[in-house]
Amino acid sequence: MDLPVDEWKAYVLQKWSLLPKSAQVAVSTAETLSEIFFHSSSFLQSEDEKFLKRLSQGYLVGKDPKAPCFYREEGNKKFQEKNYSEAAVLYSKTCLNDIIRALTHGYPERLRPKLLLRKAECLVTLRRLKEASQTISDLESNFTAKPSPAASPFQILQENLCCLKMKIQGKENLPETFPMTLTKDFEGVDLTEENEEISSASSSVCLCTDPLKGRCLIATKDIVPGELLVKEDAFVSVLNPGKMPPLPQGLESRWDTRVTNGDLYCHKCLQHTLAMVPCHGCSYAKYCSQECMQQAWELYHSIECSLGGLLLTLGVFCHVALRLTLLARFEDVHKVVRRICDEINNKDVCLPESKSLVETFNYCQGEREEIGEVVQTQIPGCNLNGKYENNYNAVFSLLAHTENHSPEHKFLCALSVSALCRQLEAASPPALTTGLKAAVTPELCADLNVWAVAMLRHLLQLQCNAQAITTIQHTGSKESMIADSGQVRLATGIFPVVSLLNHSCSPNTSVSFTGTVATIRAAQQIKKGQEIFHCYGPHESRMSGAERQQKLRSQYFFDCSCPACHCEEPRAAAGPRWEAFRCNSCRALLQGDDVLSCGNRACPESISRNHLASQVQDLQQQVEMGWKLLRNGKLEQAIMWLLRCREDAESFLSAEHAVVGEIEDHLARAYAALGDWKKSATHLQKSLQVVEVHHGSSSVEMGHELFKLAQVLFNGFAVPEALNAIQKAEEVLLVHSGPESGEIQELQKMRSCLLGLPPITGVSPRDFAP
Ligand SMILES: [Zn+2]
Ligand SMILES: [Zn+2]
Ligand SMILES: [Zn+2]
Ligand SMILES: [Zn+2]
């Protein structure tokens, strides 16, 4: 997804292997990015471009006039299957907003109310009550404005409308005022004291340089868990399109009814939305509002619009690189040019020797002399006053590690950028000069090659500096009452300030996202003078030490020496408890490498690791089957199946084994779906123990699990237990995601609802939610 599609990658690598030796050597030994770019791009031939074009055409990104009809029908089918969330998305593919706009221009009036009612119903089912209420009041004003004829379809509509309104009122029962005691503690530190040297960071940290590690953030005072340290909007972000392979050519089904991220989140601000406003020029860019569409158009989409298929083929990193250079046009270009020229002198990036650039170059030289030596003593990325800001200058200063990438990879990146630039030129001749702000010098922008080299730099930077923007996605709320939440990767972004943090496999902070804004909070006490760490992905609870070292070396080019990696060795032999096996005859834990023997000295049992590994694999397949039964609503069957799995698991896995946790979690879901809250809570508590051993008692994973427990106990009206679970979940989640997070808000609503309940006398959960 980040890199180009496999077909293009394979094609370019094939091309590389057929290059004359001298050309390969030229690319391998090139010292500057511009040399790499010009040595590589001279090999891009028109047949290569044709091949790339064919790949790009596999993606349906243009507008098709027949599409709305098709999606409406598919939406109706999903609606009848009671698959509301997919139906809602498919309806929004019919561009409800387009239809409403069309209605004002004499579109058949009778189509509108029915569609609106369907939309409202979907929204109620999805508990998006505000939007549903809005849709309903739109509908009502539609009725009152024109007294409805006695025709029956309208009466049915109105009856449906009444039902819907009652449903909404039922769901709105939860009072809106919730205790603010806990959130208050955290509001005080909400970046009210912004750092003077680093934008978007709190004054509790400062920017330092370390001869070995480069830039880093250090605590300037003692920091408490949950304290907000960085709150930064992405300088650039590109929505990951989600899994959507191109359709084979000539396939009968012309439209895709699969729902992906691109259908659920605004391409500009990443807000979740069901009624999308699509771009007028393409079908892949969709927005939450007219404003987002307008902004995106002015900032970058006017140029990206016609390139959809190509950008999907070349991958998200290429897209981010292009968007970065497009955004650079709006910054103080003098600063940017100066930055690029600094890089020339440092032999890191070089500009082409074209005439217009020689002028630019001379211009920079003049500037540099005026500034004198100040530039040399700065921390990279800071402006002349020593301030580090979320801007293009800071992005440009992120390390590209040019010397560490393989020559083939550099060739692939350069060729992709080159192809993209040729398309840009072909699509709209002065693509980069149109719609520019007055500040931009025409010489600079007219020369696409400068931007090509800049794009190549960004492409190489991204491997180490791209930040995955994630969100908690709730699915499966229909069959199971427990929110099935999982972290999903939503977009790829660049956050210059977050990028200042170094990696640790057991970081002292936690990151979360709201739209395109990243927040970093202390996950534990951090003493004055200690470094602030962030995890780049390989976390000690998810990967073994050897795996982490390998990953960090190949992707980020460094050897990790974090505390977790330091003290890994002695623990490695026994393995973590969430991967431990136990003896079949005496139940003691097994020990050893290839052949495991029983920890109980009196017991002679021994067994090969390979055998145990295949046993785990078989069990996982069985658990998967149980999960499928559960998803298909065969609850009793699922429970029987999963209880058998648990029995099997108990015979050879430790009680804290990750697979045991999974089984308990599934059982909890199954019982919750049957309305047996007590049993559900019992199983959830067992799964909670596994999560605690695996991720730690104050981990975000623990927070999500406690949240589920709170939901189950709430639904079961176990008031004291529910309040207790709410409190625990809140304590953990506040540290990781702060008071504005959706989960915290829901916990607070649950609490105030429980506290405000009349004494319970014979109230069943079903009476509560009509
Ligand atoms: Zn938006
Ligand atoms: Zn477009
Ligand atoms: Zn480490
Ligand atoms: Zn034994």
TrEMBL record:
Q: Which UniProt keywords apply?
A: Cytoplasm, Metal-binding, Methyltransferase, Nucleus, S-adenosyl-L-methionine, Transferase, Zinc, Zinc-finger
Name of one Pfam family that matches: SET
Q: Which GO terms describe its biological process?
A: heart development; methylation
Read off the PROSITE patterns from this record. Answer: SET, ZF_MYND_1, ZF_MYND_2
CDD domains of this UniProt entry? SET_SMYD4
Which GO molecular function annotations are given, in alphabetical order?
histone deacetylase binding; methyltransferase activity; zinc ion binding
Which residues does the UniProt record annotate as the domain MYND-type? 266-305
Q: Which residues form the SET domain?
A: 203-537
Q: Which reaction does it catalyse?
A: L-lysyl-[protein] + S-adenosyl-L-methionine = N(6)-methyl-L-lysyl-[protein] + S-adenosyl-L-homocysteine + H(+)
One Gene Ontology cellular component:
nucleus
Main localization (coarse): cytoplasm
Task: Write down the PANTHER family for this protein, in alphabetical order.
Answer: SET AND MYND DOMAIN-CONTAINING PROTEIN 4
What this protein is called in its record is Protein-lysine N-methyltransferase SMYD4
**Taxonomic source organism:** Octodon degus (Degu)
Lineage start: Eukaryota, Metazoa, Chordata, Craniata, Vertebrata
